[in-house]
Amino acid sequence: MAGRTWIGKVFIATSLDGFIARPDDDIHWLQGQPSADHVAGDRGVPDDLGYAEHMANVDHVVMGRGTYEKVLTFGGWPYPDQHVVVLSTGLAADDDRITVTRSVEETVALLDARGARGVYVDGGATIQAFLRAGLIDTIVLTRVPVLIGQGRPLFGTLDADVHLVHEGTVASGGGYVQSRYRVIPTRSSDG
Ligand SMILES: NC(=O)c1ccc[n+]([C@@H]2O[C@H](COP(=O)([O-])OP(=O)(O)OC[C@H]3O[C@@H](n4cnc5c(N)ncnc54)[C@H](OP(=O)(O)O)[C@@H]3O)[C@@H](O)[C@H]2O)c1
């Protein structure tokens, strides 16, 4: 990440078969199914699986239009302390809470100009674009114990393999399994 002032962070949950949403963008399955049969979770895993701690170390959120449109249905704005950047080729820039960018390059220029430090990158297509550009440094991936068969994938095509260091895995009592990874920078993403 030489040349960047900021760390690109993914913090996301997928179905066990790797989807972040159903084809119609339904995400209710993320809440899982209570079952007494889950093996007991690890001690000390917070109920929010570390989301609050993650957000405390984020000053910018970059998301795709798909994720932004889902957030608008939540009934409240969940980013009171962060600058939010929405990537979209067509979205009108008429929401004062966000800055719209049209490309990864424009987004990076904005983040650099603002001296961003911690950037939460969200949305499947956006994460894939940032991964391809070597702009993701950490991935916290929570797997929900459900197979949904089809949907919007977290990962997609790459120009080259991305190698990661596994930094740890914990399980919650609800059967959620969360793994933390650090991306090993490639020569090109080193700048
Ligand atoms: N499971 C979870 O934890 C989780 C987390 C986040 C989101 N989600 C869900 O995932 C779904 C959205 O995911 P998604 O895969 O559709 O991805 P997304 O990245 O949220 O949105 C895709 C859109 O972002 C814009 N975009 C992405 N890359 C771009 C680029 N390089 N240049 C310009 N624009 C770009 C495009 O908008 P335009 O078409 O306007 O150009 C594209 O159609 C939603 O249902 C959301 O609820 C789930």
Characterize the structure shown:
The structure is a single chain. This protein is of the alpha/beta class. It has a single domain, classed as 3-Layer(aba) Sandwich (Dihydrofolate Reductase, subunit A), CATH 3.40.430. Helix content is 17%, strand content 29%. It contains 4 helices and 10 strands, in the order ββαβαββαβαββββ. The chain has helices at 51-56, 65-71, 104-114, 124-132; strands at residues 7-15, 19-21, 60-64, 83-87, 98-101, 118-122, 138-144, 152-153, 164-171, 177-183. An 8-stranded mixed β-sheet has the order 5-4-3-6-1-7-10-9. The longest helix has 11 residues, at 104-114. It is globular, with a radius of gyration of 17 Å. The model has no long low-confidence stretch (mean pLDDT 94). Bound molecules: NADP nicotinamide-adenine-dinucleotide phosphate. Residues 12-13, 20-21, 25, 27, 30, 63-67, 70, 87-91, 102-104, 122-126, 129, 152 line the site of NADP nicotinamide-adenine-dinucleotide phosphate.
Properties at a glance:
10 strands; 191 residues; two-stranded antiparallel ribbon; globular; Dihydrofolate Reductase, subunit A; alpha/beta; binds NADP nicotinamide-adenine-dinucleotide phosphate; eight-stranded mixed sheet
Write down the overall mean pLDDT: 94
Query: How many domain modules?
Result: 1
Report the CATH superfamily.
Dihydrofolate Reductase, subunit A
Radius of gyration: 17 Å
Helix-strand category:
alpha/beta
Query: Helical segment tally?
Result: 4
* Second CATH tier, the architecture: 3-Layer(aba) Sandwich
Q: Total number of β-strand segments?
A: 10
CATH class: Alpha Beta
Order of helices and strands: EEHEHEEHEHEEEE
Distance between the termini: 7 Å
Which ligands, by name, code or SMILES, are bound?
NADP nicotinamide-adenine-dinucleotide phosphate
Approximate strand percentage: 25-35%
Shape: globular
**How many strands, which pairing sense, and closed or not: the largest β-sheet?**
8 strands, mixed
